[in-house]
Specification:
about 280 residues; Rossmann fold; 8-stranded mixed β-sheet; about 15% strand
Length: about 280
């Protein structure tokens, strides 16, 4: 792995952003804002054990047309951890408070991934009609839905591993959970997975079988678009029941499966995702 190359790519994307720190428990929450496009505000909420870099393949295309805001959610990336006993509502509250400091009273679109879908659905009702639209990618928290029994468990790392062994472990874990086609697992994805999981201090899987996304969506009227990769490991093959549960609370939603993609579909099939995301936002501007 050429660490200089991948670190340089991340630094290049990060360099285009204005950084704003907002309060988060006993520390700060880090927001980044790319405002090249000058259009509608688009707020990106990343997944569990992640950071803003879950959107590394999407920020530049989106910010060419929109005012893009991404953050490290509480206990993840560079944001402060929450006290023991935290809830999903705690993460959503600090995120919402920070977002208000960053964008004020402006209207915005929410684009969420995995754990970020739970945070987004939980905070959205408090913003009312300020939420122009919502796009949820790979949401969990739709109630207790059995995962496919053939999904392989993630490999554990240990202190005795070399750096190369850690990278290869994370490469394998990406294949098991995040990216369907192993040929699309590049060095950048492995490096991001390593950095993000090393900094993770928030246990989001504990909320995956809750109904928090459904609870939040019941209270939101903004146009709703839900997408999954065709081979999303946590969701496959139970897409029908997921769509059914979502339509019970939001019968007007748009639901789509992206052919050939895994859970981290916005990275694996970035061109496809970016086109769908941009079209959705423009249709709801």
């Amino acid at each position: 792995m050429d660490k200089t190359l991948v670190e340089g790519l991340v630094r290049r994307v990060a360099a285009g952003a204005e950084v704003v720190n907002t309060p988060c428990a006993e520390g700060e929450m880090k927001f980044r804002r790319w405002n090249r496009g000058g259009g509608d505000i688009v707020v990106l909420l990343h997944g569990g054990s992640g950071s803003w870099t879950h959107w590394i393949a999407n920020i530049e295309p989106l910010s060419a047309q929109f005012d893009v805001v991404a953050m490290d959610l509480p206990g993840l990336g560079e944001s402060a951890a929450l006290p023991e006993g935290y809830s999903a509502a705690d993460a959503a509250r600090w995120t919402a408070e920070g977002l208000r400091r960053v964008i004020g009273d402006a209207r915005f679109h929410l684009v969420c991934f995995s754990w970020g879908c739970t945070v987004g659905a939980t905070l959205a009702p408090g913003f009312g009609d300020k939420v122009r639209s919502m796009m949820l990618t790979g949401p969990a928290a739709l109630g207790d839905i059995l995962r496919r029994p053939q999904m392989q468990p993630l490999l554990r790392r240990n202190r005795g591993m070399t750096e190369a062994q850690i990278f290869e472990t994370n490469r394998e874990n990406l294949a098991r959970l995040m990216i369907h086609d192993r040929q699309r697992i590049d060095d950048l994805a492995v490096w991001l997975q390593t950095e993000n999981t090393n900094r993770s201090r928030f246990n989001s899987p504990q909320f995956a079988r809750s109904s928090l996304v459904l609870d939040g969506l019941r209270q939101v009227s903004a146009p709703l678009y839900v997408v999954y990769g065709e081979f999303d490991a946590p969701a496959y093959p139970n897409f029908e029941i997921r769509e059914q549960r979502l339509r019970e609370v939001r019968p007007d939603l748009t639901f789509e499966i992206i052919d050939g993609g895994g859970h981290w579909v916005q990275y694996e099939l970035a061109d496809v995702f970016n086109r769908k995301c941009i079209d959705w936002i423009l249709a709801n501007t």
